[in-house]
Design brief:
There is one protein chain. With 659 residues, the protein is of the alpha/beta class. It folds into three domains: 151 residues, Glycoside hydrolase, family 3, N-terminal domain (TIM Barrel, Alpha-Beta Barrel), CATH 3.20.20; 209 residues, 3-Layer(aba) Sandwich (Rossmann fold); 115 residues, Immunoglobulin-like (Sandwich). The chain contains 18 helices and 23 strands. The strands form seven sheets. Strands 8-13-12-11-9-10 form a six-stranded mixed β-sheet. Helix 16 links the parallel strand 11 and strand 12. The protein is globular.
């Protein structure tokens, strides 16, 4: 109603009758809330991400929204940084694929003028995820090579998929805030990449140039941001107040103003607003498109496909649906708080389904399921642990739902120590002392450092924040209606002190080989420099083996591809989905290269006893890196290759030569 009133006023009373553009943060759903983007990245299923973004875009468009400030495509290497929950994790390839998928989903297949399409906005340009020490908004001191190899590619992928807008990031890069960085916003974005879309500041990003110590006052901040390439200011009001004077004084050229205005108008034209300013303002359509049966079913499907099984010792999972007494214990077993996750503006907790409801709808006999909180999220509950211990002793199996609240991830939610809060750790230790089998469900928006009784639990599922259908999605996996098929999009470290940690690190000149820690090699006193649970790790209900690596001739011609294959077998008794991953290492180059780089992956379904040959095609372009001259290059030489279930697993490996 408000949107219709505002648009009517703009069309009837403004001088030029230019329609308004309505924008909002539709990060992982509107009223139907889907898994947080980091969880969706765990699915390793870009098509799933496209489908959920399509549903979110359709709901947003039906609610009068033309433009969403999503997707966030920042690569995140430091789990202390709270906004990693909005992205696709630590890997460039996965980040690129998810960025493109979500752009295509938001915008649909019929063009931006379609009434169910919304324009996307790739953010935050650039290197926002590289904030020093994982502290949100912090400075970034980074090489141009790292920008080009790690932080730029997901943006290029989003633009290739059709994103017409981009948001400048809050952070400074090498001393120059991104919002006033002409090298970033003009030299790279416009001249080098040819991007002709709209650049918008982040919320008060131009105003914050003063706090950065980069601008003396509001007028100077306006000039610096505008001339660097920011076409539209969000929220500060600086452009409205200071651009007229800056143009009149000649400090800002009229040609630059025309350029920015043209880009705003072009976006409105693309969205069809000049043809019909009310094309996305239809209360009747809104009622029929919000929280439909289909969108809720998709939320449940996406939730189940985002759950990562870290451990399943002794085949504890899946749980039987009957005949066992199950104790649900922990601060996240019941209640509709902390289900939909951070950065969800329009969804409500009251419309989400909790774990207890999902479990009770799945088991044959509700009376065999008990529920005890045992602890608060950050603080103990009076009598909570004794009650939890009693419930555990009375049960055959304990399901412990622990982790982070949704306010512990997201913007401005950096953490010094990425561990389970002490109150919950005490709960887990007390329950574990009963000796009952424990399944741990981890609610989180980041990688966590696990230890003690939590890590010792025989079964661990990472359940993230799964949205509207959180409880049913978890129950589907817990009881085997759907097998776990997701993989970690981020590395879980042994300890917070390893951060920033990412699997595609450099070797150093003194790498510690696998095995015991060796004096004067690169390791910590307490741990090797590896992950507790590696990027790409995730178990399923099958028993999966890798064999038969085939590298063909073992040589990639300078002008031809190389096909690499392996046999993947399920020797277990249950069907399973496996994410087969291809990694390479350039063994000697003019610039040092990572110990592994993901170059391809494929999710396959395997019946019990089934074997499949999975083939990948590597091309010369897959071997490119940024050379000493900061230009893309590829060099002949020897490459190690793995087809493996994670970035740390051996799988099957060999080597090939690039001629």
């Amino acid at each position: 109603v408000m949107s219709k009133r505002m648009q009517t006023t703009a069309m009837r009373e403004s001088r030029l009758n230019i329609p308004l553009l309505f924008a909002a943060d539709v990060i992982h759903g509107l009223r139907t809330v889907f898994p947080v983007p980091l969880a969706e990245a765990a699915s390793f299923d870009p098509e799933l991400a496209r489908r959920t973004a399509r549903a979110a875009g359709a709901e947003a468009a039906a609610s009068g929204i033309d433009w969403t400030f999503a997707p966030m495509v920042d690569i995140a290497h430091d789990a202390r940084w709270g906004r990693g929950v909005e992205g696709a994790g630590e890997d460039v390839l996965l980040g690129k694929m998810m960025a493109a998928a979500r752009v295509r989903g938001f915008q649909g297949e019929r063009g931006l003028a379609a009434p169910d399409a919304v324009a996307s906005c790739a953010k935050h340009f650039a290197a926002y995820g590289a904030a020093e020490a994982g502290l949100d908004y912090n400075a970034v001191d980074i090489s141009e090579r790292t920008l080009r190899e790690t932080y730029f590619p997901p943006f290029q992928s989003a633009f290739a998929a059709g994103s017409p807008t981009v948001m400048a990031s809050f952070n400074e890069i090498n001393g120059v805030p991104a919002t006033a960085n002409p090298w970033l916003l003009t030299d790279v974005l416009r001249r080098e990449w040819g991007f002709d879309g709209l650049v918008v500041s982040d919320y008060t990003g131009d105003e914050e140039l003063i706090a950065h110590g980069f601008a003396a006052d509001a007028r100077e901040a306006t000039k610096l941001a505008f001339m660097a390439g920011v076409d539209m200011s969000m929220q500060s009001g600086f452009y409205l107040k200071h651009l007229p004077d800056l143009v009149a004084s000649g400090d800002v050229l009229m040609a630059r103003l025309d350029e920015a205005v043209r880009r705003v108008l072009a976006l409105k034209v693309q969205l069809g607003l000049f043809d019909d300013p009310f094309r996305r303002i239809d209360p009747r359509r809104e009622k029929t498109r919000i929280r439909t049966r289909e969108s809720l079913a998709l939320a449940r499907e996406a939730g189940a496909k985002s759950i990562v099984m870290l451990k399943n010792d002794g085949g504890l999972l899946p749980l039987p649906r009957q005949g066992k007494r199950i104790a649900l214990i922990g601060p996240f077993v019941a209640g509709q708080h902390d289900l939909i996750g951070p950065w969800n503006v329009y969804g409500t907790d009251a419309e989400a389904v909790d774990l207890a409801t999902g479990v009770r709808a799945t088991v044959a006999d509700h009376s065999l399921v008990s529920m005890t909180l045992g602890s608060g999220i950050d603080e103990p509950l009076s009598g909570g642990i004794p009650a939890a211990v009693a419930a555990a002793r009375a049960a055959d199996i304990v399901v412990l739902a622990i982790g982070e609240s949704q306010r512990m991830s997201g913007e401005a939610q950096s953490r010094v120590d990425i561990v389970i809060p002490p109150a919950q750790t005490a709960l887990v230790e007390a329950v574990a002392a009963t000796g009952k089998p424990i399944v741990v469900l981890l609610r989180t928006g980041r990688a966590l450092a696990l230890s003690g009784a939590v890590l010792d639990a025989p079964a661990i599922l990472v359940t993230w924040f799964l949205g509207s259908q959180d409880g049913p999605a978890i129950a589907d996996v817990l009881f085997g209606k759907i097998g776990p098929s997701a993989r970690l999009p981020v590395s879980f470290p042994h300890a917070t002190g390893q951060e920033p940690y990412h699997y595609d690190h450099k070797s150093t000149g003194r790498p510690n080989p696998p095995g015991p820690l060796i004096e004067y090699k690169a390791h910590y006193r307490e741990f090797a420099n590896d992950a507790l649970f590696a990027f790409g790790h995730g178990l399923n209900y099958g028993t999966i083996g890798y064999s038969g690596l085939d590298l063909g001739t073992g040589t990639m011609a300078s002008d031809g591809p190389l096909t690499i294959s392996a046999t993947i077998a399920n020797t277990g008794t249950r069907a399973a989905e496996e994410v087969v991953q291809l990694y390479i290492r350039d063994l000697a180059a003019s610039v040092t290269r990572p110990v592994r780089e993901l170059k391809a992956f494929r999710k396959i379904a395997l019946k019990p006893g089934e074997r499949q040959v999975v083939s990948f095609t590597l091309r010369r372009s897959d071997l490119l890196f940024v050379g000493r001259d900061l230009k893309p290059t590829v060099e002949p030489g020897r490459f190690q290759v793995w087809i493996a279930p994670s970035a740390q697993a051996e799988g099957v490996s060999g080597a090939f030569t690039l001629a």
